[in-house]
Amino acid sequence: MNCMTKSTIALVAAAALAGCATDDPNQRAKAGAAIGAVAGAILGHQVDGKSGRYVGAALGALAGGGTGYYMDNQQKAFEQAMLEEQRNNQLDIERLRDDTLKLSLDSEVSFDVNQSMIKPAFRPSLDKLADVLIKYDRTVVHVVGHTDSTGSDSHNQSLSERRAQSVSTYLEQRGVPYQRLRHEGRGESEPRDNNDTAAGRQLNRRVEIYVKPIVEGREQEAFDSPRYGT
Questions:
Q1: Alpha helix (H) ranges present in the chain?
Q2: In the chain, what are the domain boundaries?
Q3: Looking at residue 130, what is its pLDDT?
Q4: pLDDT of residue 32
Q5: Are 138 and 70 in contact (CB under 8 A)?
Q6: How far is CA 149 from CA 53, 196, 212, in A?
Q7: How far apart are CA 133 and CA 125, in angstroms?
């Protein structure tokens, strides 16, 4: 934290204390809440948008012991909000070993063939997803595009990147802060199934959203590209 930031928080603290009535039994609690809120607003912007690295102290990080509980609640929120999509096999939700949540979107319902524009019919589903992401804001959201092996490597790579960017941009437009969003394409390099069958190729055409918790003391890990194998 630089000197200017420290000075700003100090001024906020003084103002908060001065603003509390001396006979108020909750003076300390109110002052602490005010200081914390403003300090949070200051520190929360100390993020390098390009690298994702925290310039100052991380704000909103989860204490290690509370990460599982927080992600439990977020997973339940996703499952409740997107119950219809799961029933229609348009969305899979998986909990990974490090408490990351992995949401796999079916590209058949999200995009037209060889297109990267989100289908209008699928936008309400992404709206619900964005609402949960906004509520549970102590996470970084990685959008990863995948294709089957039909077409050239370069075409598939480009398509996967454009689809991932489309989803990321849409989530940002719905209110998810861009500082929390990352997107990338992996083309045909990480198939879920055999590309020799139509069913396998359909499984391989997908967009995955990894919701990674920001854990205190390990904040940078949340910004690292998700790599879990297939």
A1: 3-19, 27-43, 67-81, 83-87, 107-110, 123-135, 153-173, 198-204, 219-223
A2: 3-43, 64-223
A3: 98
A4: 42
A5: yes
A6: 34, 9, 28
A7: 13
54-79 residue pLDDT tens: 433 444 689 878 999 999 999 999 99
**Cβ–Cβ < 8 Å for 106, 206:** yes
Q: Is 141 helix (H, G, I), strand (E, B) or coil?
A: strand
| CA dist., res. 29 & res. 73, Å (int) | 27
pLDDT at 40: 43
**Pair of tokens at residue 11:** 């001024």
Answer whether 207's CB lies under 8 Å from 146's CB: yes
Sequence-ordered list of residues with C-beta below 8 angstroms from that of 34, at least 6 positions apart, any chain: 12, 16, 19
pTM of the model: 0.75
Cβ-count burial 74-96 (b if 16+ within 10 Å, e if not): bbebbeebbeebeeeebbebeee
Name, in order, each residue with C-beta under 8 angstroms of 167's C-beta and a sequence gap of 6 or more.
105, 110, 118, 126, 143, 145, 183, 207, 209
* CATH number corresponding to 64-223: 3.30.1330.60
Count Cβ atoms below 10 Å from residue 138 Cβ, excluding itself: 20
Residues 2, 167: Cα–Cα separation, whole Å: 35
The stretches in the chain having pLDDT less than 70 are 1-60, 229-230
Q: So what's the pLDDT on residue 91?
A: 93
- How many C-alpha atoms does 206 have within 13 Å on its Cβ side? 24
pLDDT at 107: 84
Distance between CA atoms of residues 46 and 101, nearest Å: 25
